[in-house]
Amino acid sequence: MRPTRIVFVLVPKVHLLDLAGPAQAFTTANDLGYGYELSYVAESEEVMTAQGVPLRAQLDWPEIEPTDLIVVPGWRSPSLSPVPPIGPEVRQRLRDHHASGGSVASVCSGADALGASGLLDGRRFTTHHDLTDELAARYPRGTMVRDVLYVVDDRIITSAGIASGIDLALHLVAVDRGAEAAARVARQMVVYARRNGDELQESAMLRHRGHLSDLAHRVQDVIDVQYAERLPLSDLAGQVGVSERTLTRIFTTATGLTPLRYQQLLRLERAEHLIGHGTTIEAAARTVGFEDARMLRRLRSRTTEPVAG
């Protein structure tokens, strides 16, 4: 399968972390075998960053397909210049890629480039909190969403900037390659996998991966794959080479849940997805591993995270 190409558009005074955060996430995903290929393009071969580090970029754009992604990292912008530092050719490429079915993303002030290309019209978007008022006034045909990490609207993905570019990239990896892939990338990068954009991004795989316990991660790896199967505590303990008591203590300390509670939470989330797409409660319960629908109904009736019955 052809790797997904991520094309970063570099502009003068680009912020290193706006670029490096998502670039590292996609590179790590590729190192783990998830199939990404990164390219860096600009309107000049050398681009000076806001931090004074010069970068080399390609002048010629690679061949891109609708499954690929264009990312515009932000640039130094205590206040925005009257015109974004991208030329008409780049703006047209952004428009054409989106029109062909592709996705376009921005980090921080990169949203200004998307707005100048007309891609924010009629869509929700976000940016760094210092720029929200200015961009909201500049692009009144769009809807500014404040105080969130990222917003996804019709294949236009905007993020708040700086470190939130990592959250944006992890979300896109989760969408493209699955939540388990995003969790592995986050773990490799030693970051807390929040995934909380403006919509409910409540993946249990990621919400309970914000710890540094290797043992708990290994147990979660097993449960994530086999959540619909019967997983006795003795089998889990045997797979990771510790006693049941040690496993329960370490896992609960790291995640706040027992292994059984974590498994039930995964089952519940998957069942809710199936029900939301028209599956009956009974069929959803069987699919996720419950013997009948009673436990699923019980878990759905609770307002907090599920506990063992």
Automatic annotation (TrEMBL):
Task: From the UniProt record, list the coiled-coil ranges.
Answer: none
Protein's name in the database: AraC family transcriptional regulator with amidase-like domain
Any one Pfam family here would be HTH_18
**The keyword Transcription appears for this protein:** yes
**GO MF annotation terms:** DNA-binding transcription factor activity; sequence-specific DNA binding
Which keywords has UniProt assigned to this entry?
A: Signal, Transcription, Transcription regulation
- Gene3D superfamilies, from UniProt? 3.40.50.880, Homeodomain-like
PROSITE patterns for this protein: HTH_ARAC_FAMILY_2
Q: Where is the HTH araC/xylS-type domain?
A: 217-309
Signal peptide positions on this chain: 1-25
